[in-house]
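Lab notes, practical 5.
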Amino acid sequence: MNKIFLIFVFFSFIGFSQQDSKDLSWLQDFEKARLKAKNNKKPILMYFSGSDWCSPCKMLKEDFFDNEKFKKYEKDFTLVLVDIPRSSDILTDEQRVQNYELLDQYNEGKSFPLVVILSSKGKVLDKISGYSSLRDPSFHFQLLDKFTK
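Output from the prediction step:
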């Protein structure tokens, strides 16, 4: 009986943590994101992540994107997630092709994690690369503050 309870608690926890990241309105189609940004007159926040291999990406997600404070900024940006996983079954072939094209265009140094702020036309306005093991997202919030009203 205890094993069943522990399994239930474990899967409940997994479901809860996945739900947190899904609360944000991440787009994965860049052209749709550009149109949405243009129509809403908002900059694009593009996030390059290696979701299944990049430890700093996982820490940034937890400390910055899953932070209640970040959710207040969501209305000011069009969010685009560009995931570059090592596992081949996480993305569709079409999504993988698009993500690698975006990687070549906006992340020439192949830095992970990378947060890029773009105009709705795709012009890079600013960016911040990496994330420290000190786990201080204040520099990332300062980047967002430059582009919010």
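Observations recorded by the TA: The chain has a mean pLDDT of 88. The helical segments are 2-22, 30-40, 55-65, 68-71, 93-106, 138-145.
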